[in-house]
Amino acid sequence: VSAAGESLAPSAGCDALTIRADFPILSTRRAGKRLVYLDSASSAQKPRAVLDAIENCYATSYANVHRGVYELSETATRAYESVRGLTGRFIGASDRREIVFTKNVTEAINLVATSWGRSNLSSGDEILVSEMEHHANIVPWQLLCEQLGAVLRVAPITDRGEIDVEAFEAALTPRTKLVAIAHVSNVLGTVNPIRELCSLAHEHGALVLVDGAQGVPHLPVDVRELGCDFYGFTAHKLFGPTGVGVLWGRLSLLDAMPPYQGGGGMIESVSFEGTSYAEAPYRFEAGTPNIAGVAGLGAAIEYVNAIGLDAISKCEHELLGYANERLAEIEGLRIIGTAPHKVGVISMVLDYAHPHDIATVLDTEGVAVRAGHHCAQPLMRRYGVPATARASFSMYNTREDVDRLVLALQKVRELLG
Amino acid sequence: MMDDLRELYQTTILDHNRNPRNFGICEGANRSAEGNNPICGDQLKLYLRVDDDDSVVDLRFDGSGCAISRASASLMTDSVKGKSRAEIEQIFERFHELVTAAPDEDTLEIAAGLGKLAVFSGVREFPMRVKCATLCWYTLRSALDGDSTVAHTE
Q: Is the pLDDT of residue A11 over 70?
């Protein structure tokens, strides 16, 4: 999108301090101290480039898309569609028409459940999810199963928080039509072996939907290399705005799927006798979309691309190592999710303080972490904990942030230990 | 901020969190209710023995939650034992007023009638934690109403 291209040039390479300077909120103070934001897995902060792209969209190039014949509308449409192309290249799609804009990853998953699911599944068919899924990758399938009499099966995980691949394979049956699985766990940080799981699923004739909400912000993603059939992610965890999500699907699949919602923009022609629908992806984008939000997503992708996900991933990994080392100093602290291949997401429990109490004390030290079940109640049950306190790291976090976390956790011990 | 924290986690609260009173299942209970804070995952079960005049003869609780919710349930069970339904409603109203008071409001008068429950006066500085302190009270109310649905906070 041209609006995004013209805005602030992001910093080259992954230097957290330089990157941090691009995020206005990160120089604000909380509780009299510099904000240490460790909740990016819930929603990431936004760089100036994204804020500018949204502002520029409204201030200089805004009109409805796919509707007007006047020049401004044409410009707005081109900008909007160029982000579709950019998004496609960002995740290795072979065709820009494979990119459907949704409002978030939840809607991307619901779209597949409703459109693909209802026309491809019948009573007795099976959907396989894993024990580590977010509610967004459980509940849409439960709703579908209830409607069709299909069966939801669950692949177990190991104590370290990895998919038990043998058990996964054993759970695939001739009735398995779809595997729905997270690329990266929002609680455990585990990076799942998607390629391997896709091969196994395909051998058994099942398609694979990957919930990439936590994948895209941390790892370079190439959907063709992963071998999946659907991949969803959300802009707001990728430093973009809220209200924009992406569904990638193989074009042959999208082409064969019925519409998700009816409305303007998704039709070819409408009459009261019957309506024919536009081709993919427009068939799935009923109504005026989030035009400025998509501009923001474009700017976010350009920002991330300029730093490079390989560099981001490497820096985050180093920071994770440092955090693990420092957290080992805290007595009574246990980390839930210890897979060797994980991103910077650390779920903690203390044997003397409940996660909510931890988060309250940390907040008074200016350290923002999430406490709760993280929309993964079955996973909490798996580990026998009611909740965890989760610190999640991003490209703008530093070792000093980890030190502040450790200091704040020592306060928790002082107060509640 | 450490002062606010000490105010929130007063010694009595920490004590009741570590050693909750009236914790466990109640023999001969004739009313019970469950409370949930779905956002936090706090879960609470209350078991009551209520007499013919609608007075709470005995009550116990179990479940899991943070220090505030656990201590609140523990102190609540202590403070409502032997009380009539009308008296309990009055205490809850006053307690609710205390934990939701504006930061500049003088709460001495509200706290005065609450006995030990006054230790929750620090909660008002932490609006996100009001639901932790009140979950047990909403659950108690639904147990007294004979309401079988799970209680939630506002």
A: no
DSSP structure class, residue A382: H
Distances (CA, A) of A94 to A99, A248, A259: 10, 10, 22
Nearest to B40 among A364, A387, A411 (CB): A387
Per-residue pLDDT tens digits for B78-95: 999 999 999 999 999 999
- pLDDT, tens digit (0-9, with 9 covering 90-100), for A396-411: 999 999 999 999 999 9
C-beta separation of A102 from A246 below 8 A? yes
Q: Which tokens is B11 given?
A: 């010694």
Residue type, A126: E
How many angstroms away from the CA of B53 is the closest CA of chain A? 37
Q: Classify the phi-psi angles of A189: left when phi > 0, otherwise alpha if psi is within -120 to 50, otherwise beta.
A: left
Check if A361 contacts B (Cβ < 8 Å): yes
d(CA A299, CA A47): 9
Q: Give the C-alpha separation, B61 to B45, whole Å.
A: 5
Task: Detail the DSSP E strand segments found in A79-189.
Answer: 99-102, 126-130, 151-155, 176-182
SS3 call for B55: strand
Cα–Cα distance for residue pair A42/A237, rounded to 1 Å: 7
Nearest-CB residue to A364 (from B4, B65, B70): B4
Among B5, B65, B128, whose Cβ lies nearest the Cβ of A354? B65
Distance from CA of B15 to the nearest CA of A (A): 10
| pLDDT tens per residue, range B87-143 | 999 999 999 999 999 988 888 888 888 999 999 999 999 999 999 999 999 999 999
Cα A60 to Cα A10, A47, A56, A76, distances in angstroms: 22, 20, 5, 10
Q: Considering only residues 333 to 352 of chain A, which have any Cβ-Cβ distance to chain B shorter than 8 Å?
A: none
Of all residues in chain B, the percent with pLDDT exceeding 70 is 97
Q: What is d(CA A364, CA A333) in angstroms, rounded to the nearest whole number?
A: 20
User: Given an 8 Å threshold on Cβ–Cβ distance, is B40 in contact with A356?
Assistant: yes
Pick among B40, B64, B125 to test the A interface (most A CBs inside 10 A): B40
Task: Note the pLDDT tens digit of each residue in A356-401.
Answer: 999 999 999 999 999 999 999 999 999 999 899 999 999 999 999 9
> Quick check: is A375 catalytic?
yes
**Residues A236-251: tens digit of each pLDDT:** 999 999 999 999 999 9
